[in-house]
Design brief:
It is a single chain. Helices cover 38% and strands 17% of the residues. The two termini are 32 Å apart. The strands form three sheets. The protein has an eight-stranded parallel β-barrel, surrounded by five helices. Strands 5-6-11 form a three-stranded antiparallel beta sheet, with no helix packed on it. It is α/β, with parallel strands linked by helices. It is built from twelve helices and 13 strands. The chain binds flavin mononucleotide. Flavin mononucleotide binds next to strand 4, strand 6, strand 11 and helix 11. The site of flavin mononucleotide has 27 residues, from strand 4, strand 6, strand 11 and helix 11.
Length: 326
C-alpha cells in the first residue's frame, strides 16, 4: 500500500479507506474478518463496556466512512473525527509524511473533515456499531478562539445522540491557537458547557509541562470529565533515524515510535497526579504488544493505535488485545 499514489502517504490512506468502506457494505466479508481478527477481552471503563481495550485513534476515519470495518479488524472501540462544526478542507497537500526508518509519521492535516452535520447524517443512516463509538470534536479554523466553546457545543449538540463518549481535542498542533484551550480558564469553560449527558474525555498534548498537565487535570476533576486521552502528536523531533532527516524538517505533529516513551510518561504522570481517579486512554507510539502492556502498567485502562496500525496492520490489534491481560 505504501507504493500507491506514487508513494504519497495520503493517497494510500484514501485508497485504504475506500477499500474498507467497500467491504463495510459486505456482511460476509466482515464476518470472515471478524473470525480472523476479533478478540474478546472485555472491560468496563467510564460506564461503557468494551469488547477489548484496543481502540482506533482519532484521525484515521475522520468522517466515519468505514465504520463497520474497524470492529471487524479487531478494534474494541472506534474514535471518529476530529470533526468541526463547519466543514473544512484542511491544509494544502502534501500534509502527511512517512518516516519509515523511524517507524513514524508527520502530519499537518489541519482537521480536514466534512463537518459535524455530515457525520451525524452518516451515523443516523448506518445504525449502531458493535463497539463503543467515540466522537472527537475540534474547533473550526474560521471560528476565533474566543468563540470556541459555542463552536464545540454546536458540534456536540448535532452529534450527542450518536456518540458513546466524546473527546475534546484541544491538542492538535495543526490548528493555530487550538492548544491554548488546554489552559485552565479555556478548559473550564469548555467542560462546563459540555459535561452532562455523555462521558467527555480531554485529549492532551505530549508537549505540555508537568505543571500545565496538572492544571488541566485539576479542571478535569473539578468539572466532571470522564477521562483523559494521552497523547496527541508531538512537535518535538527527538528519536528520529538519520535516514529520515530530510522529512523531519516537515512541519506538523510527529507520531509513532519516537513518541512511545513520552506518551507513556504522560500517562504515568496523569495516573499518579489523579491517584488513578481519572480513567486514561493511552495513545502514542504503541508499535507492539509490549508497548501496550507498558501503557497499561503506567495506568492506562484502554489504548488506541494509529501509526502502529499503519506500519503493522490489523495483526497488531489482535496481538495487543490478546497480550493485554499479561
Ligand atoms: C494522519 C494523522 C491524523 C490525525 N488526526 C487526528 C485528529 O483528527 N484528532 C486527534 O485527536 N488526533 C489525531 N491524530 C493523532 C492520533 O490520534 C494519535 O494521538 C497520535 O498519532 C499518537 O498515536 P500513534 O503514535 O499511535 O500514531 C492524527 C494522527 C495522524 C498520524
Amino acid at each position: 500500500m505504501f507504493r500507491i499514489g506514487g508513494g504519497d502517504a495520503e493517497s494510500a490512506h484514501e485508497w485504504t479507506l475506500r477499500r474498507l468502506a467497500w467491504l463495510s457494505r459486505r456482511p460476509t466479508v466482515l464476518a470472515a474478518l471478524r473470525r480472523r481478527y476479533a478478540v474478546s477481552a472485555p472491560t468496563t471503563v467510564f460506564g461503557l463496556r468494551f469488547p477489548n481495550p484496543v481502540g482506533l485513534a482519532a484521525g484515521m476515519d475522520k468522517d466515519g466512512l468505514a465504520l463497520p470495518a474497524w470492529p471487524a479488524l479487531g478494534f474494541g472501540f472506534v474514535e471518529v473525527g476530529t470533526v468541526t462544526r463547519h466543514p473544512q478542507p484542511g491544509n494544502e497537500r502534501p500534509r502527511l509524511f512517512r518516516l519509515p526508518a523511524s517507524k513514524a509519521l508527520i502530519n499537518r492535516m489541519g482537521f480536514n473533515n466534512q463537518g459535524a452535520q455530515a457525520l451525524a447524517d452518516r451515523l443516523a443512516a448506518s445504525g449502531p456499531l458493535r463497539v463503543p463509538l467515540g466522537i472527537s470534536l475540534g474547533k473550526s479554523k474560521v471560528t476565533p478562539l474566543e468563540d470556541a466553546v459555542a463552536d464545540y457545543l454546536a458540534s456536540y449538540r448535532v452529534l450527542r445522540q450518536y456518540g458513546d463518549y466524546f473527546a475534546v481535542n484541544v491538542s492538535s498542533p495543526n490548528t493555530p491557537g487550538l492548544r491554548a484551550l488546554q489552559d485552565r480558564d479555556h478548559l473550564e469553560a469548555l467542560l462546563t458547557a459540555l459535561v452532562g449527558e455523555k462521558p467527555i474525555l480531554v485529549k492532551i498534548a505530549p508537549d505540555l509541562t508537568d505543571h500545565a498537565i496538572a492544571d488541566a487535570l485539576q479542571v478535569c476533576l473539578d468539572r466532571g470529565a470522564a477521562g483523559v486521552i494521552a497523547t496527541n502528536t508531538t512537535l518535538r523531533r527527538d528519536g528520529l533515524s538519520p535516514a529520515d532527516a530530510a522529512r523531519a524538517e516537515q512541519a506538523g505533529g510527529l507520531s509513532g515510535r519516537p513518541l512511545t516513551e513520552r506518551a507513556r510518561q504522560v500517562v504515568a504522570f496523569v495516573h499518579k497526579e489523579t491517584g488513578g481517579k481519572l480513567p486514561i486512554i493511552g495513545v502514542g507510539g504503541i508499535m507492539d504488544p509490549d508497548d501496550a502492556a507498558r501503557m497499561r502498567d503506567a495506568g492506562a485502562s484502554l489504548v488506541q493505535l494509529y501509526t502502529g496500525f499503519v506500519y503493522r496492520g490489523p495483526g497488531l490489534v489482535r496481538r495487543v488485545a490478546q497480550g493485554w491481560r499479561g
